Amino acid sequence: MPIISLRRPHPRAARRFSWIYHRGATDFGRMTSLSKAFRARLAEHYTVGRPEVAVAQASADGTAKWLLRFADGQEVESVHIPEEDRGTLCVSSQVGCTLTCRFCHTGTQRLVRNLGPAEIVGQVMLARDQLGEWPAPAEGRQITNLVMMGMGEPLYNYDNVAQALKIVMDGEGISISKRRITLSTAGVVPAMRRCGAELGVNLAVSLHAVTDELRDRIVPLNRKYPLGELLAACRDYPGVHNARRITFEYIMLKDVNDSPADARELVRLLKGIPAKTNLIPFNPWPGAPFEPSTPKTIDRFAQILNDAGLSAPVRTPRGQDIMAACGQLKSASLRRRKTRERETELSAP
Ligand code: SAH
After folding, report:
1. Is 62 left (phi over 0), alpha (psi -120 to 50) or beta?
2. Distance from the CA of 197 to the CA of which of 29, 36, 156, 310 falls in 20 to 30 A?
3. Region 64-93: what's the mean pLDDT?
4. 77 is catalytic
5. 326 is catalytic
6. Does the pLDDT value for residue 23 go beyond 60?
7. Taking a C-beta distance cutoff of 8 angstroms, is the pair 106, 330 a contact?
8. Among 101, 104, 234, 326, which one carries the catalytic annotation?
9. What is the pTM of this model?
10. Which of 195, 148, 153, 197 is nearest to 168 (CA)?
């Protein structure tokens, strides 16, 4: 069984925790601060595994993408995005996705299964292996930030994501602060409050449309949790205030949601919510039914938001040449028949 949560209060538990999450040890035999007999007992009952790297790709812009394979053969992708002052790891929460957002490549793949906590933390551990970052230095780390923005809807796998993020945030473990963690959701309203109260991570909401009519079409989850409910949940998100704003992601689809009237309506909708927006130029994939908005249209849209006092940076696509940009992730994992009934259970909030 994979080791996942060996925690204090016992000092020995703290030492194991540090060996695994701070120093990256994968072999109990090397945990020399533990007694020999105890190491042997651990090795008998537990493993400290990593997902297997099925494919590793490097983009011309420094972005790295790993297709990871778990013990049962299922696969997900993680992406590392280096920037001057930070390094962000984009982590997956599910194999496939239930949401079928029309512009998203992962959305064309059905949900296969949820990832377990060890598989979510395992993506961070693997990235650290690959970047040669053990023990994690205090300064100049290559992974300073984490975004739950890979494949899947994290709030449809809340318990496992929460358990994983608690380990990621632990000061004696991977030690990435909640201020540097962002969870992106398409708007699973009933899970949003828990996420804010229990984890306190930054929230990003994939809004993408300013009317229910359009959002019903491009983010079908809207039929379940329409804009009014979603924005009310944002207003109530625990811990949200002007210094910790909610990010509203808005994908720019040519002639679909990118008019000046859309921008003005967006301003109106976000009134009273400590908000910033993030404009995401649509990243194309083979067979996608949309085109990206032109840079001029995006600028005009951003200008309207800025004039209303909303910060509206445009997200630079990273790793497009290796299909590592937002919405381009997809694995070849296929759902087997047997798992069909389970899927309905797993996708319930
Ligand atoms: N299910 C979560 C997290 C995964 S998607 C969510 O919906 O937020 C991460 C972000 O990428 C979301 O904002 C998503 O809408 C966006 N995205 C999906 N497909 C995209 C594409 N083709 N181009 C640009 N962004 C895309």
Report:
1. left
2. 310
3. 95
4. yes
5. yes
6. yes
7. yes
8. 326
9. 0.91
10. 148
Structural domain count, the chain: 2
155 and 190: one domain? yes
Burial category of 78 from C-beta neighbours within 10 Å (exposed 0-12, middle 13-18, buried 19 and up)? buried
105 shares its domain with 34: no
Are 349 and 156 in contact, with CB atoms under 8 Å apart? yes
Q: What is the CATH number of the domain that holds 27?
A: 1.10.150.530
170 Cα: distance to centroid of ligand 1 (angstroms)? 27
Co-location of 273 and 179 in the same domain: yes
Q: Whose CA is nearest to atom 15 of ligand 1?
A: 206
Ligand 1 atom closest to the CA of 185, numbered from 1: 8
Indicate which residue's Cα is closest to atom 19 of ligand 1.
327
Among the listed residues 193, 273, 192, 257, the one whose alpha carbon sits nearest the alpha carbon of residue 219:
257
Choose, from 77, 119, 153, 249, the residue flagged as catalytic: 77
The 10s digit of each residue's pLDDT in 222-252 is 999 999 999 999 999 998 888 889 999 999 9
**């949790």: which residue's tokens?**
225
| pLDDT, average across residues 2-16 | 63
> Are 255 and 319 members of one domain?
yes
Ligand 1 pocket, residue 77 CB under 6 Å: no
pLDDT in tens, 52-76: 999 999 999 999 999 999 999 999 9
CB distance 90 to ligand 1 below 6 Å:
no
pLDDT at 26: 83
Contact by Cβ (8 Å): 331, 77: yes
Q: What is the pLDDT averaged over residues 296-303?
A: 98
Closest C-alpha residue for ligand 1 atom 8: 185
